[in-house]
Amino acid sequence: MAFDLAWLRASKAQALAAAPSSWRGTKPPLVQAIVAGAGLIASVVTGWINSTTDGDATLAMLIAFAVTVVAGAFTLWALWRRHLEPILLRLHLTADANGFTFHEDGLTDVDFVLKHAGNGLEGKRHFARADGAGFGSLVYTTGSGKNRTTHPWHYVIARLPAALPHMMLDARSNDFLGSDLPGTYLKRGRLSLEGDFDSSFRLYAPMDYQQDALYLLTPDLMAVLVDGAAAFNVEITGDRVIFFSEFDLDYESAGEWREVDRLLGAVVPKLADRAARWARRV
Length: 282
Known about the structure:
There is one protein chain. With 282 residues, the chain is of the alpha+beta class. It folds into two domains: 93 residues, no CATH class; 179 residues, no CATH class. The longest helix is centred in the first third of the chain and has 42 residues.
């Protein structure tokens, strides 16, 4: 398959003209609500101070300051909205043209290793399809204080025709002084496979299912994974496969969509075929 990416190149006028009636536009940033609330609180507090003192001038100054802050926040939000609106709308239209639903933020409901990696897990832009396929970005944090680190990731998810034993393919291409898998992930059941596959991935599977892993990962499937998914860690959990890598993508460029298309259009069908064969075998 090939994604229709024409809307990514659409002008602002074209995108706004094609906006569906259900388009809600951008959401106001949280900071606006915080600043507006702070201005209201400041007005209430200064009103109380004025009622107990003779601080008319002080009250006027504080109210003026609060109004200025709130007005400034609305101005900044309006500028932000004007810039972001056509970008998000292009993503919405591109998603719709390819059978996906676009979400500005939030997490998918699928459980995979990154959901247990750290604290403050936050979902960013993501796209979901009715058949269970989806892709998007997220961040999580580790440590605290000066040792606090934010980790951006992007992922592609697809549903398989059968639930498989849990397996993890740790890509070597994204190693930096060792594996990039979260430190909380316990690596057990390391398997070595034939050919050059070990130079691209480290395979982990439960000891009781190692023969099943060998049955699933045939030479032709291994070749497809090396050619099409070597930049990603690959986790198989239940009836889902998740490809993920430690980069933050905004999906505003055609190249990022083509990467997703390669995984969903070439790698996943081959893996799904092997999963169906495995299910018939067992």
